[in-house]
Design goal:
Blueprint lengths: L4 E3 L2 H8 L12 E10 L5 E11 L5 E6 L12 H11 L4 E5 L16 E2 L2 E2 H18 L1 H5 L5 E7 L1 H9 L6 E7 L7 H7 L5 E7 L3 H12 L6 E7 L9 H14 L10 E2 L6
Parallel strand pairs: 4-5, 4-8, 8-9, 9-10, 10-11
Antiparallel strand pairs: 1-2, 2-3, 3-5, 6-7, 11-12
Helix pairs in contact: 3-5, 5-6
Amino acid sequence: MSRQHTVRRDSEDALTLYGYSRGEPSMDKLDTILDLDTEDHLGRRVAYQVPVTAYPTDSNVIIVNSPGSGEFKDGRGDRWMKLGRHLQERNMAAMVTYNAPRPDGLVQLEWEPYSYQGVGWNQLLVESLAHAVDWSLEHSVELCGTETPSLYLAGFSSGGSAVGAVAFRYPMVRGILLLSTYDSVGDWFYDGVTQFTGDIHLVYGNRDPIAGFLAYVLQSGPMAAASFQVREVPDCDHRFSGEANTLALTDAFYWALPNAGKIPGIGEAPKRQS
């Protein structure tokens, strides 16, 4: 996987454009586009773009959010945009959210149902997140006020799978939040999440059996994580549909951050019988 990437030259200007100056919290956002390239299944170079939105603070904390496969960076119903604003207004963390290219169906790969210009979409999910993390670290002073931020990764559904695959590569990642997570990227997920040595928080709805089974699999196997905590949300589906579950989704981010306290309405996951 190529870790080389270029950022549009207007990204630095955007820091001023959106009203943010170093050392000052901003109630605005930073938008940019990462111009990237990778190799397809035949070794040919493929260019692609990853749009990024960040909500700067002076909190010394960054959360890079990886949306699900059916979402763009702002999220379904703008939920990631609203959450970014919520965390920003409370100066809890600078949230960075992005999205990988959408599958285009131009090439049908034998080993994977989705692709973009001949590049496996799982590969793009993993690479796009890694580039978003790299960009966040490169711009950490502008985003949260320090060169050494407390870094967290969060991911929903397939985005959580990408988080599990990538987090261990960055020793500065303190914790990850896996929401309704599936093992979408396959071995990359299991190889990565079992090597991660920070804290893992996993949240799923009791009406999402696939995510619940993954929680059971991870609880049953060897993990290098400093801590591994699981919560099940009652009356909740895969998408966290409904007002109560939207609040539970926000509460999950509080839970994953330090000094967050308990989550209203989210209980311990039920114990499975071996």
